[in-house]
Fold this protein.
Amino acid sequence: MKCRCTRGDNGHDNPAMTPERVGALREAEQRAADIAPAFERKVRAVRAHASQFGKHPDVEAFLCGLAMRAGQAFGVTVAESFKRLIP
């Protein structure tokens, strides 16, 4: 069996996206995820688990601040960032 790893810069059907831009986007996707579609659900889930934030006065504002800062670094409104660990 053979395995080929790439940056993911091929196979995009948008002519405005160059391989360089697509590759950079794919690399960024390995460090952060755009959570805008699921943000409200995330807030509800955290509120449902008091052990996560206890009696924090404004869980939504706190999470929104974190997500907006992470999003700014990756060019989206809200994101969740993570570190990619390579053994």
In short: The chain has four helices and two strands. Residues 32-81 form one domain. The helical segments are 19-29, 39-48, 50-53, 59-74.
